[in-house]
Amino acid sequence: MPAPKATVCLWFDTEAEAAARFYADVIPDSAVHAVLRAPTDFPSGKAGDVLTVHFTIAGIPCLGLNGGPAFSQSEAFSFQIAADDQAETDRLWNAIVGNGGQESDCGWCKDRWGLNWQITPRVLTEALSAGGDEAKRVFAAMMTMQKIDVAAIEAARRG
Question: Residue 26: which domain range?
């Protein structure tokens, strides 16, 4: 299988493999494909340490790089995962936040490695796309939430 033309490279200190395995367990259509070890010592590790991990998150090709502590994740990059309903929203949110992660606002959360996630129920995206008063009501409701409450979004849609 040829390498994809484009891959998202995610910088980790030392835990790229643990993160990739967590994502593969939690996010649908995700998997770990290869773990590559350093052939020699490198600035933030030794020969034999995990250097890169090739994996997919929701079908998106990713490369986890154990690059050391020089850089960290920020809210400038996130994965948005479309949840089908409240049960999926709860499962994803609870897995990320419940494993050393952190809640944020408007459906955003951060995992224990600092990677940011938007757990976005499809009903929210559909309502915001509708525009007009419906989108205004839904946006106002969303702005009061951390984890998205599907029932509250549906109520806001109806007005």
Answer: 7-67
